[in-house]
Amino acid sequence: MPSMEQNGPRNTTQTRKQKPVLKLSNQPRGAADAISRREIVKKQRESLPIASVKERLVQEVKDHDVLIIVGETGSGKTTQLPQFLFNAGFCPNGKVIGITQPRRVAAVTVAKRVAEECGAELGQKVGYSIRFDDKTSSSTRIKYMTDGLLLREALLDPYLSRYSVIIVDEAHERTVHTDVLLGLLKNVQRARLKSVIDHAVVNNKKASNGITKEEEKGAELTNFLKQCQRKFPPLKLIIMSASLDARLFSEYFGGARAVHVEGRQHHVDIFYTLHAETDYVDAALITIFQIHLEEGPGDILVFLTGQEEIEGVERLVQEQLQKLPEESRKLVTVPIFSSLPSEQQMRVFMPAPAGHRKVILATNIAETSVTIPGIKYVIDPGFIKARSYDPVKGMESLIIIPTSKAQALQRSGRAGREGPGKCFRLYPESEFEKLEDSTKPEIKRCNLSNVILQLKALGVDDIIGFDFLEKPSRAAIQKSLEELFLLGALTDDCKLSDPVGHQMARLPLDPIYSKALILASQFNCLEEMLIAVSMLSVESIFYNPREKSEEAKTAKKCFASPDGDHLTLINVYRAADELLQKRRMELGIEKNEKNIKGKNEKILRKWCRENFINSRSLRHACDIHSQIRGHVEQMGLPISSCGDDTLQFRRCLAASFFLNAALKQPEGTYRALASGQVVQIHPTSVLHQSKVQCVIFDELVQTSQKYIRNTTRIDYLWLTELAPHYYAMQG
DNA sequence: GAGCACTGC
Prior knowledge:
Its EC number is 3.6.4.13. 46% of the residues lie in helices and 16% in strands. The chain is α/β, with parallel strands linked by helices. It has 4 domains: 49-261, Rossmann fold, CATH 3.40.50; 268-440, P-loop containing nucleotide triphosphate hydrolases (Rossmann fold, 3-Layer(aba) Sandwich), CATH 3.40.50; 507-634, no CATH class; 657-730. The strands form 3 sheets. An 8-stranded mixed sheet has the order 4-3-5-2-6-7-1-8, with helices on both faces. The protein has a 6-stranded parallel sheet with strand order 9-16-13-10-12-11, sandwiched between helices. It has a 5-stranded mixed barrel with strand order 17-18-19-21-20. It is globular. It binds one DNA strand through residues 102-104, 130-131, 146-149, 151-152, 173, 175-177, 305-308, 337-339, 363-365, 367-369, 384-387, 398, 400, 442, 450, 454, 507-509, 539-540, 544, 546, 624, 627, 682-684, 688-689, 701, 703-705, 707, 709.
């Protein structure tokens, strides 16, 4: 979100001296701005579509324990409803209204906005809580958070007793977390209601044993019920969705009441092609130039499937541009996808040079995660790259599939945020009708090991019988149960094992990484394993731009370990750590902590740039590292290092990743031992073409081929020695 | 010698 500051003049050479002067001269105007801003905020709030149905909505929540709200974009439901409920007294006795979001940025930005609207400091009445960043206090009553975080909270407080209301926002996105949360909340609601009734029955019995008169008994019961409800009120549940189909949610909650709140979007004209296109990249290119040459001003947003496609289109646009007359060349291309370094991602927010039109070439990052201002035209070829999971092969694949209707609507909506817009769908209207209504929920296309471990830890023993909004396939559930059993997290009768299963559930990691950590304390290499799993838990650490591919390769060689990628990643982490340690020594003790942090951040970013390392990923890995280290310390696992004896570390990898082992075959390919598939070591691995006999790998992904990624050399014999329960069984 | 959308604990 561009702040007001950014609109002001920018002067990078500004000296320290100048700053206070600027600040002083701004102060009187700043105060006036604050007042007028408050007025503007108030007016904006009152003009939101949801404002006109405030009383009705509050009444609906009072009348129903579950309410489905279908609110179109721009209705104001996310920011306003929690405030309505707070003002209507839904936070008795310090209880909290919790609002979950699938994404971190959304939780943060909405909380900031609502705090401003309330005239409260962030973290007081209104706050947010996301992983690594908690801005709440004991006085927080409206709390925005990620859905994953609420799931974690449920592990510590199964009744979610702090909350009087929970609002699940963006439920139509159907992330794994949202789906699991809905099932959990349904149970919590039932359990809380039951606890109130149980208390009442017990009390009633007590009362009957006494000699009190019937009326007194009645009065006592009512009184007790009131007390119970004050201590433990029933949980109000609100599901908010942007999808037009509320039926699924309503039916899931036993025919729950659904209401519709109007949105406010500008009109977007939709155009289709007459015939199906054979090459959507080519069609997109033609459409870009049609808009550029024939339509009025306004930026263009093109949805493509991946980095390669984006880079390809970017080159083609540049080529075509050269063929145009000078005056028509005022077009700039800006790519955006998740693995792009943040500085380059920021380019989408910068306005095009005067008189120029901006073409943003984006993945579905621009569908929900990033909102780009100034878009008037959307080009939607109708495809998306999606992850799918084959439970039988235990393999993920990335495939290009058509979007759903809901996604197509979401994409076209991006053209109507600031004014009327146009959306060009590069397929015939008849094709639109054939699209699925909504995207297949993630829970039906992912590995369930983590979900199952969580549910087990929450006391749900019968996973197949769990009341999922939409049930994953039995095969997928069985596969993950089997994996958890083989990792030692489950007992023979499918209960969480003690202590291993409980420890694994406590760690916010993939189960296999958690297992590796637990074993590492026995192999005396927990320090190394903490770094390895932190680095494996983030997006690619190495950044490899096409135009500097050779340089990037050379840079990576400095960190490469002949033993494999895990040790290579550890080398990167330690090199960065040493850099910061050295800095700390140089600086000594400086008064201003914040200052040091900022400087270190800058130095680290520079180092990352020089070494072709994605600084965002590295930062993320550091955060995970310190969080996990804390958990591990609390569990009392001894943290020690194997030093230069990497044999211990590799043996530990073999003991924990034994399900992911691959053996070299005569013709040079590898055979994954668990599934028998023929695979290859990914070209980005340091062991690519190294001809080692046996490796363990982090993941098996099918793209153009079946690849194993992040591999480490092990001795084949270690498998039968360290995982006899699996390899002896296999014969 | 390939290329990987996006979230999240």
